[in-house]
Structure formats: structure tokens, C-alpha cells
Amino acid sequence: MRFRFDVLVSLKEGLLDPQGKAVQQALPVLGWDNVTDVRVGKYIDLVVDADDSGVALDQVRDMADRFLANPVIEEVQIELRKEAPE
Amino acid sequence: MRFRFDVLVSLKEGLLDPQGKAVQQALPVLGWDNVTDVRVGKYIDLVVDADDSGVALDQVRDMADRFLANPVIEEVQIELRKEAPE
């Protein structure tokens, strides 16, 4: 079965996020002065073919820790989106 | 009140996504040969201060269309995450 995941990778809290800072500083110039805590990360959308969603999720966790993200400086959120159509 | 949003920006379907392709081609080399449809986009996490969630959501949509994403080639998903702590 095919399972679709959203993998969200962002810098750990407390680490400087220059891209987020750049966005945040640009917003007031454009008229939006009520936005804070902007952080920019990566969004990876993928489909895993596996026997069940637990196996698929374990694999995505493994892929995130070893390849998609750097666990020293980044944190990962994984969301099972829906069963992808065959 | 403070509302926290996840903004997910990805290339529209059908458009070439070189970054996603690169990730997808690397996965089998690392032993994961059951992953398809990899697409890489941006993940923007932000907090909006507004009177209610509807107003906040409208603003985030506006920001996404005019600044965070390029609506010609990118599509945006916006999720109200939770009420951010004061």
C-alpha cells in the first residue's frame, strides 16, 4: 500500500534562522506588522510503499534522521497525510 | 490573540522539481527503494496577532499569494496550528 507523508524540517528553537529573520523583517515593509516568530524550513512530500502505515512511518523517521534532516541542528515533524491512490 | 500557522509551499504538479528528483534518486542508493513522488518545498512557521482566526487566516493567505509564494508556479497549503501562547 502507498502512504503519503509530509515531512517538515525546521531549525531547532534557539538556533539562528537567517531566512526566517529575513522574511520577518520584510513583512512590516509590506504592511504586515503583526507577524512574529517566523521560521523557514523544508517541506518534503513523499510516498512510501509498505505493508502498513506503522512500517512506513518507521522508515520515514529513519530517512529523516539519517538523510533528510540533520538531527543535531534540525527538528522533524512527520505527518501521515492520507493513503495515496494506487 | 496569537495564531500560529504552518505555510507549506510546493511547486505545482507537473512542474519539474529538481530538488525532489535529487532526493528521490539518492534514496535507493541508501537502501530505500520504495519511495516515490518526492517533492521538496518550503515550510514557513509564523505567528499572527489578530482579533480572530478568520482575519488571521485571510492575512496569511494574502501574504502567501503576494510574498511567500509565487502563485504562478507554486501552490500553498495553510494550516492553523494552534493558538500560540501569549
With strands numbered from the N-terminus, the spatial order across the biggest sheet of chain A is 2-1-3
Determine and state the CATH class of chain A: Alpha Beta
SSE ordering of chain A: EHEHE
Question: Which of globular, elongated, flat, extended, rod-shaped describes the shape of chain A?
Answer: elongated
Structural class of chain A: alpha+beta
Greatest chain-chain contact? A-B, 36 and 36 residues
User: CATH fold name of chain A, please?
Assistant: Mth169, Chain: A
Poorly predicted spans of chain A: none
* Number of structural domains of chain A: 1
* Average of the residue pLDDT scores of chain A: 94
Q: If helices are DSSP runs of H or I spanning 4 or more residues, what is the number of helices of chain A?
A: 2
Largest sheet of chain A: 3 strands, antiparallel
Description:
2 copies of one chain form a homodimer. The first copy, chain A, has one domain (2-83): Phosphoribosylformylglycinamidine synthase subunit PurS (Mth169, Chain: A). The model of chain A has no long low-confidence stretch (mean pLDDT 94). The termini of chain A are close together. The first copy, chain A, has a 3-stranded antiparallel β-sheet with strand order 2-1-3. The longest helix of chain A is centred in the C-terminal third of the chain and has 16 residues, at 53-68. Chain A has 2 helices and 3 strands; from the N terminus they run βαβαβ. By secondary structure, chain A is α+β, with helices and mostly antiparallel strands. Strand 2 of chain A pairs antiparallel with strand 2 of chain B, so a sheet runs across the interface.
